[in-house]
Protein: Alpha/beta-hydrolase
Amino acid sequence: MASYPPGQCCIQGFRHEGEATGQIITFGPENVQAYVATAAPDKVRNGSGILFVPDIFGLWQNTKLVADQFAAEGYTTFVVDVFKGDPLPYPPPMDLNFRKWIEEGDDGKPPHNSAVIDPIILDAVRALKERYGVTKVGAVGYCFGAKYVVRHLNKTSGIDSGFFAHPSFVTQDELAGVQGPLSIAAAEVDQQFPPDLRHLSEEILQKIGLPYQINLYSGVSHGFAIRADISQPQQKWAKEQAHAQAVAWFDHTLQLSSEKL
Structure:
């Protein structure tokens, strides 16, 4: 594993306050939902947009607010409901069987595995390009969502550059298969992405030979980039810097041709 499977820390964190300004749409043959935050025409970054694969809470408040931030930076952002209406509620129930929810879904819903999610990602990339005129796609993933950034950072899926924070469930083979530049925001305290796996990931990315970046944030734990306690100055700063890291990465990698990377 390049990161361990989701654990208890993946369901902990804080809900953020604010008013989301995007809209909910449906896309693809199965009418999957997405939250879309559209960049203002005068701020669009050279035809670039962002596919956002969320954490296990799906299209919740925190996700929407972060998407709105990307749109304010000039990146129309498409947040995919990879759970097809079955995200974990926030806060999660005390008796949650996390593993069962991932492998089997809940109340008749489909499981939350690659066989179900991969086609959704492909449909989302197509929708982002066809509906919103995006020509270069960056992908962001938080916790659970990191796996699908890694799986689809390739020419076949149509994703040009990737960023993820505090990953879970990423395998070594998946990471070794990326075909585009990748930026990682890591937490100092993270059972899913501890130092040994972070160093292993660095070794894998070095061998690939494409541009990569791994930033380590002190004083924070798994989930900080999407569920930080922003009443705590260090957590708030780290969350904001991880977001700035993603924007700077896409500013660099999506605005340059692949020959220059």
Remarks:
- The beta strands are 23-27, 32-37, 48-53, 76-80, 136-142, 161-165, 182-189, 212-221.
- The first strand starts at residue 23 and ends at 27.
- Residues 7-16 have pLDDT under 50 and may be disordered.
- Residues 8-260 form a domain with the Rossmann fold fold (CATH 3.40.50.1820).
